[in-house]
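Progress note, sequence design subtask.
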């Protein structure tokens, strides 16, 4: 079952918010979209801030990100980063799951 566009949009907006806060880009937030280049395009994003960003995303979305999953292509654009996070997020089916 494909994910709804609303969920994808919500995750994108949450990832964008984490990027904005972590990289201190509040003044550029309105200009950031799915095609916005990240690593190599934003001077604020270097190897140290990549680590900070990964930690912030792990905390915000309660996901695990292994080192071997982190490739440069994940940080090509904001949209790719959001898609990666979305792939890691477990979305509970409507109605919930009994435990």
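Output:
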């Amino acid at each position: 079952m494909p994910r709804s566009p609303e969920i994808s949009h919500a995750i994108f907006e949450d990832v964008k918010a984490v990027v904005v806060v972590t990289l201190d880009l509040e003044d550029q937030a309105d200009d950031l979209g799915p095609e916005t280049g990240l690593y190599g395009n934003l001077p604020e994003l270097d190897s140290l801030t990549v680590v900070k960003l990964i930690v912030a995303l792990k905390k915000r979305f309660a996901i695990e990100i292994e080192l071997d999953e982190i490739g440069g292509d994940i940080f090509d654009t904001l949209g790719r980063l959001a898609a990666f996070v979305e792939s890691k997020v477990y979305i509970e089916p409507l109605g919930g799951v009994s435990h």
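Helices lie at 5-23, 47-61, 78-88. Work on this subtask will continue into the next period as scheduled.
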